[in-house]
Protein 1
Amino acid sequence: MGATGCLDGPCGVHVSDYTPCMWVYPRSRIEVLADPKPLFSQTSSPTLVWGNQETIWSLTPGAMTARPSARTLYLCKPKKDFTKYGRSCRPVIGGNPLLPKYGYPSERLLRLSEPKKYLPAYLEQRSRDTPEWPVSLAAQNYNPSKRILQLAQPKGLHPDFMPPREASTSPRRAVASPRTIALSKPKQLHPKFMPARDPEWPVTEAAKRAVATKRILGLAQPSSRPRVALTALDPDAFKVKESALKAVCTPRLAELAQPIKR
């Protein structure tokens, strides 16, 4: 370096030390990312070990020579391994690990493993629908009477009860008659029965070439009705005709117009 703070390149080019360092890539970043990802294979690909992977982009000299701050040094410290202290309590994939030594549980574990008992007040207020309830001492020391002992006996069979009999050999060797065989056959369809027609069928050529008559064209015209909005606003919709105003009620109509008396 001269007094002026310059460097002489390998080709004799005068380069200033304040010239920014420019990194020249053989290929652009887009071209590198556009390449397909190679298939992973244990035989062709090297074993991935911590430290032999390449970063996404090259590190700058400033990042390589930078000094980390106290906060960065604190965050880069690895976590403590607490498994040696709580290995028996923390869940493990595949089940809990086997204990190195087998021993009897402590008194605390035995007391916690006992089932919870119902309170006496709850047992007394509980409904009789439950299968269990406390039996009083009076019921335990009670002497049943003869009637209770009689009712406690299981119900016996009826004197005329007959157990199911075994089928004799004669029905087993029976042969059905032609009439029985004919009656056992399922009911057949009527000879003139026609199955339901498919809702979709092809149009015949004669129907395609048919010409509609004037009568068919007249019937095909939709009926002309006034719109509902106009009918609802028609002031003469309920107008009484002149002939109806001059009509005279007959005695029979007057009799039928009388309300029914109940």
Protein 2
Amino acid sequence: MVLPAALRERVAAVHGGAGLSERLRLYDGWAACYEQDVAALEYRAPHLAAASLAFAFPAPPAEARLLDVACGTGLVARELHRRGFRCLHGVDGSAGMLERARSTGLYQELWQCILGREPLPAPAEHYDAVTVVGALGEGQVPTAAVPELLRVTKPGGFLCLTTRSNPSNLRYKVELEAVLEELERQGAWQKVLAQEVERWEKATSDEESTQATGYISGVVYVYWKCPVPPLEEG
């Protein structure tokens, strides 16, 4: 099925070179039909990320406190809720998206926050898990913001991140993976999984399609934040 031209234009606009204020305006305007559009795109990232995080979680997640960064309309929260997560907080830069997220009734707390421009509205080591699904990409959340995600995660907690592997995002993906690997080299976290997924979502142009399949590919990463070793006495 050919994707509607208006949908392709909306996706191109938010992933284009617009400045921050214009991009937030685009997301505000997209909020009303966002879920309809991503359903047409067969966007699988929320399902895949939630399933990966639930698989990694060592204990029943109902008591776990989780931060959904760039929460959008709440697609990830729905998937997490189905898997037993109940204490969900969310942040997003778009007021329009947050309004939709609030209407789900799944979040205990929601804040407007632009990751990369300001710190997350949470103290250090506050969350058992942090997710960023869909926002780590070219022209969106900068890779320099990744340590801020670690800051708010408890030692022994999990971080679930995603990015796309389509041609226009490959430079960003290389940069992101360099940051992830450097943090692992420093002992900040350990990689639990990195799952490459071929049919991540439908491509909106032939140029973005993976091997002419009509889809783009993507990756789910799960990391475990290393506990801080105790200071030796003496």
